[in-house]
Amino acid sequence: MTGREAAARRRALVCVGPTVLALGALTVYPGVWVLWLSFQRRIPIFDVSRFAGFENYAFLAVDSRFWSAAR
User: Fold this and answer.
1) pLDDT of 26-61, one tens digit each?
2) Closest CA to 39 of 25, 24, 60
């Protein structure tokens, strides 16, 4: 790679890098946050939160209303 090609590549990374970081932050962070919240048992009116683990998913696995809505 010549010096000119390397400079063009750096310039491209400088232009595209912030956009890639912003899009990553705007998609990855909310995804991780939703995953974390799915493992919580929250009662917002009382500001109570506790770690529930897979209880929420176990409940969905046997909930007939969930499966009828998922069809």
Assistant:
1) 999 999 999 999 999 988 888 888 999 999 999 999
2) 60
- How far is C-alpha 56 from the chain's CA centre? 18
Q: What pTM value is reported for the model?
A: 0.62
For the chain, how far is it from start to end, CA to CA, in angstroms? 55
Q: What is the pLDDT of residues 1-16, one digit of tens each?
A: 788 999 999 999 999 9
Helix, coil or strand: residue 70: helix
Parse the chain into domains and list their residue ranges: 1-32, 39-71
d(CA 14, CA 17): 5
Residue 13: predicted pLDDT: 93
Is 26 strand, coil or helix? helix
